[in-house]
Design brief:
The chain contains 14 helices and 16 strands. It is of the alpha/beta class. Strands 1, 2, 5, 6, 7, 8 and 15 form a seven-stranded mixed beta sheet that branches. Strands 10-13-12-11 form a four-stranded antiparallel beta sheet, with helices on one face. Strands 9-14-16 form a three-stranded mixed beta sheet, with helices on one face. The structure holds succinic acid.
Length: 526
Amino acid sequence: MTRCDVLVLGAGIAGCVAAIRAADLGADVVLVAKDALGMTNTSWAQGGIIGLPGEAEHDSPSLLAADIEAAGAGLCRHEAVHLLAEEGPKLCRDFLWSRLGVPFDQDPKGDPDPTKEAAHSAKRIYHAKDATGLAIQHTLNHAVSQHPRIRVLENRMLVDLLTLPHHAADPLQVYDPLHVWGAYLFDESDGGVTTVIAKRTVLATGGLGYLYQHTTNPSSATGDGLAAAYRATARIVNCEYIQFHPTALYVPGKPRMLLTEALRGEGAHLVNRKGERFMQKYAPEHMELAPRDVVSRAIFQELAISGEASVYLDLRPLKAKLDIEAHFPTVYAACVAEGLDPLRQPIPVVPAAHYFCGGVLVDLDGRTSLPGLYAAGEVACTGLHGANRLASTSLLEGLLWGHRAADAIRPELPLTVAPEAHQFAVWQPPVESMEAEEPDPLLVDQDWNLIRTTLWNYAGIIRSAARLERGRADMGYLYHRIERFYREAPLSRSLLELRSAIICARLILKAALLNRESRGCHYRVD
Ligand code: SIN
């Protein structure tokens, strides 16, 4: 049993910033990482983060807000957009650059040197070559490890949020109002479950891209926080809005690595096997710079017509204006590692699930509908992205809401007394697992395959009622199988992830089925 003021679940940008800010303000913080510190989706982010533009650049909060709203297809929450446009870029500069020292690429004067990206009206993107997320994550890791008021727990997985009355020792507490008081955590090293009691809990567990057969996300993106919040009855919204990135490297049998949008921003062409720039047919005005959902659908349709496994991203037009290897070292190295030379040949690409625009509903300070629970980053839905997300807004959203959540929590701490340990039930394995046997890995793999192919085929880039209904029925059946697993097998990370995945899969399918209107990244042919 551990006690703290603030429990932060998740150690990407949102979680680390919430932890650092809360600790800076005097709170005693426990920060939980699902893997070793630093192995997060944040560290995979290639594109940048919106910061303050250069002095000579014409930009303003209203220009930025207009770009975000245009991407969001009429579904953005205006207050969230205006808050981020007003406060976000300054916080990026003050907190990440000045306070923590993230090594963004610099101009000759030693200031961050912002670049422009597709669908942005100004040069406002801070970046560290094509590995911005990694640079940010390294800096955050250092800051949290050094902070005297942050305890980091690595390789711990969220089992459930600790709520009263759900987890009360005294059945009479069933009459009390619901409150989140921390979490149960699974420790991979010894298979045990520990209880962390906290005055406030911040959910920053990231997204769920791994539920899709093709994804730019790491295999840890299994929707654990969303599923736990759902079980604890938090309000969850916009689950149908899954953003697909048009260009992930296609190598059969290998994970789909992101090939950053900045490549198309700099002039890379999308071509089919015959070398034709097929975007001419789908978006003649904007070509490769059309919104992500338009480009992803165009590729999807092109593949359906041709029967091919991939289209191609041709980087050779960039050679005349920049040094590809120096400018995009991550992309270049990934291609070369697969025996592909981007200076000489088009690179095979497919669209892939990239970002979850929905999530646990929060207010402008990251408060969820459950007392005691805050959320920030991809697991949260601030309303900023609406039905589709503008590139390079996600790291900034995590930064701003992580920071604001910590600010909002600070004055609440002296007024809060967390319950004593004896008021909570000690975590027990699900009843039937006392005599449990390890689950057959083949069955677990097959369940994962089913979830990932079902979501890709039925709740993917192009959806219909018939597909979604089939997916819902199949996942409904699988849910019962997995629940049985959960009751019959000893607790393990793979089982916990499977339990998260099936809950999230059902949330996505249900939301996509109920919403008949194509908007942003939710596209229905019917
Ligand atoms: C990219 O670099 O293309 C991804 C950036 C983002 O999704 O914000």
